[in-house]
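Why should sequence recovery work at all? Because a backbone constrains its sequence more than one might expect. Tight turns favour small or flexible residues, buried strands favour hydrophobic ones, and helices have their own preferences. The token representation captures these environments compactly. In the example below, the structure is given first.
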């Protein structure tokens, strides 16, 4: 029997057929890039270039602004035209460095060849330092600085490395194509991460709707025992850290705790590949694979895109927006966010660009809660979404905290299952943000 997490979850149509067969395609350099200074959880990076400066691809243009932060590198070579704010995908202005592209010259020492470099003899500390210098963050969307995750707190011990190859979000296939096309490099990255943590066993969890990726990775692993490929039942949100740990190891992360409490550290397959490139090739994180898809997209694709490239150029490359009303979502349909500005840039956490027709995104008429408890059954965190949404709506944040709203992973299972079309996730997000603000204030 295939492994999965023990409670909740849903089975939305995966809708991966449009882009699953699209091999990774290198996207052309744009005329200019705008690279935001906050592409990670934590403090924004601090710009170290000025207007008029000449920069090379791979050059640091902003340094980490604290322990939980990340370096930012230029993804192109050219001239800095602005260190100012730009309009982000959500319509808000954010600090960014804009560079006019004048070629593709790289900083010295970066290996751009396809030659596989398997052996790594660096000590764990040196590995973590290279990862930090390369500006690597969680590529699954959470964008947590990778070097921080690898810095196990005093008194804690990492026993297992769990690699997320689940890609449970419908429509998205970037991780799937990466596993198929860069499996050898990916596994080197897994072993480098394991070396950095000092663990002897790594698991790569892959949902069973990717049988060719599972078979390919199992063939590459062969008879070795340090890395195990774990086929998983198709069940959203299998890619959540706590759900993946439970599925693969059977261990449960306590309420309010971090995965390290179970002896596990979770990394995405995209992160593992980026670690390979950073440690073995001296290449910082300046590009990523982005799925551009949707039922009305003319040419769905998986594009290898430089950070800072306008989203609109990817859409144009794939045939442009269809006629009539559409919604463009950054990420997948469950946890992604609608984009109000498609001229905003691709960032480190940009896993996909989803184009949906208006009729595909219409919400049903909102009714009254009928106390059916479908949202409770679907919640993978064992919460009571109907209650948390209601108390958040009433701004009863003390009660929301008492009922563990901070454990919500914002997966959207509750909204998906609600027969009354209640915007449960919307209220949960608002309530969770307020409760977390109160909790941070209390600690301060």
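From this structural description, the recovered sequence reads:
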């Amino acid at each position: 029997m295939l492994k999965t997490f023990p409670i909740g979850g849903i089975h939305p149509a995966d809708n991966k057929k449009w882009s699953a067969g699209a091999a990774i395609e290198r996207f052309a350099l744009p005329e200019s890039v705008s690279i935001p200074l906050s592409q990670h959880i934590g403090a924004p990076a601090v710009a170290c270039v000025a207007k008029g400066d000449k920069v090379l691809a791979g050059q640091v243009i902003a340094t980490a602004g604290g322990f939980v932060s990340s370096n930012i590198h230029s993804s192109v070579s050219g001239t800095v035209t602005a260190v100012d704010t730009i309009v982000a995908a959500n319509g808000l202005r954010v600090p960014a460095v804009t560079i006019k592209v004048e070629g593709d010259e790289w900083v010295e020492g970066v290996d751009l060849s396809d030659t596989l470099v398997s052996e790594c003899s660096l000590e764990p500390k040196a590995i973590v330092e290279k990862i930090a210098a390369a500006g690597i963050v969680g590529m699954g969307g959470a964008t947590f600085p990778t070097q921080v995750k690898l810095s196990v707190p005093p008194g804690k011990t990492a026993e297992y490395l769990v690699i997320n190859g689940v890609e449970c979000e419908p429509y998205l296939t970037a991780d799937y194509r990466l596993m198929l096309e860069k499996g050898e490099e990916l596994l080197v990255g897994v072993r480098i991460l394991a070396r950095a943590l000092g663990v002897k066993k790594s698991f790569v969890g892959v949902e069973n709707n990717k049988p060719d990726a599972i078979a390919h990775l199992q063939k590459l692993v062969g008879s070795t025992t340090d890395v195990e490929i774990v086929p998983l039942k198709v069940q959203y949100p299998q890619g959540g850290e706590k759900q993946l740990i439970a599925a693969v190891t059977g261990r449960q992360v306590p309420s309010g705790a971090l995965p390290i409490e179970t002896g596990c550290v979770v990394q995405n397959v995209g992160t593992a590949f980026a670690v390979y490139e950073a440690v073995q090739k001296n290449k910082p994180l300046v590009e990523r694979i982005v799925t551009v898809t949707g039922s009305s997209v003319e040419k769905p694709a998986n594009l290898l895109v430089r950070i800072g490239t306008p989203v609109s150029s990817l859409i144009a490359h794939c045939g442009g927006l269809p006629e009539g009303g559409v919604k463009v979502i950054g990420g997948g349909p469950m946890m992604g966010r609608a984009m109000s500005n498609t001229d905003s840039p691709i960032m480190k956490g940009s896993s996909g660009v989803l184009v949906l027709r208006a009729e595909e995104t219409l919400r049903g008429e909102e009714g009254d809660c009928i106390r059916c408890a479908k949202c409770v059954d679907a919640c993978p965190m064992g919460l009571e979404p109907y209650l948390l949404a209601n108390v958040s709506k009433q701004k009863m944040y003390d009660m929301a905290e008492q009922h563990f709203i901070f454990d919500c992973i914002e997966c959207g299972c509750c909204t998906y299952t609600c027969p009354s079309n209640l915007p449960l996730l919307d209220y949960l997000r608002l309530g969770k943000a307020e409760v977390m603000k109160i909790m941070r204030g209390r600690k301060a």
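A few observations help interpret the result. The chain has a mean pLDDT of 96.
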